[in-house]
Amino acid sequence: MEAIINSFLLVAATEMGDKTQLLALVLASKFKKPWHVMAGIFTATVLNHALAAWAGEWIAATVPGQWLNWALALTFFGFALWILIPDKDDSNADNMKWGAFWTTTILFFFAEIGDKTQLSTVALAAKYQNILLVTLGTTAGMMFADGLAVVFGEKLTQKISMKWINYGSSLLYVLFGVGILMR
Predict the structure, then answer these.
(1) Does residue 96 fall inside a structural domain?
(2) Quick one: which of 61, 30, 41, 27 has its CA closest to 130?
């Protein structure tokens, strides 16, 4: 249960202000079909994060324990700094003509490659060594954060400063890194 909860919290916080959350906002605004957009986000996230979790578990099985701990801690500290640099939406959703579900699925899958949330999934899977639980947690975190963008969109960002959301996300990464070093 710890793997699911921590994966959810970390990815939900990380996704706030991320390019894929901005992409969710753009797609929801463009298509006006929130359930189709959410289904596309879910499909892309499950596929992408399952592959990332598999990679993380493989890394955990091949890298010696002490080296893995240091690598994971440094990774989380790096993410703590990276999260302080907000993403910008660089999607090209206006040119897609495949409908809400397929456009969202394809754009999200490729937008997640090398993204903070995907790399976090790799690190979390290396830490917990459980593909299923980490994928469940990270997918739930993505659905929560991107669901906020789809459902509430611009109203939410008017109420909560992205600066404070990024600071909170950064702090979570620091805590994960310190926690790994302390065990």
Answers:
(1) no
(2) 61
DSSP string, 22-55: HHHHHHHHHH--HHHHHHHHHHHHHHHHHHHHHH
Interior/surface letters 15-29, b for 16+ CB within 10 angstroms, e for the rest: bbbbbbbbbbbbbbe
Output the tens digit of pLDDT for each of the chain's 183 residues: 999 999 999 999 888 877 788 788 878 877 888 899 999 999 999 999 999 999 989 988 888 877 877 877 887 788 678 767 765 554 554 555 678 899 889 888 888 887 888 889 999 999 999 999 999 999 999 999 999 888 886 666 567 666 776 677 678 778 877 877 886
Q: Is residue 95 part of a domain?
A: no
The answer to whether residue 93 is domain-embedded is: no
Domain count, the chain: 1
One-letter amino acid of 34: P
Question: In the structure encoding, which two tokens stand for residue 112, read together?
Answer: 């997640």
Contact 26, 91 (CB under 8 A): yes
Residue range of the domain that includes 121:
2-87+101-182
Residue 34 lies in a domain: yes
d(CA 115, CA 112): 5
Query: From CA 4, how far away is CA 40, in angstroms rounded?
Result: 22
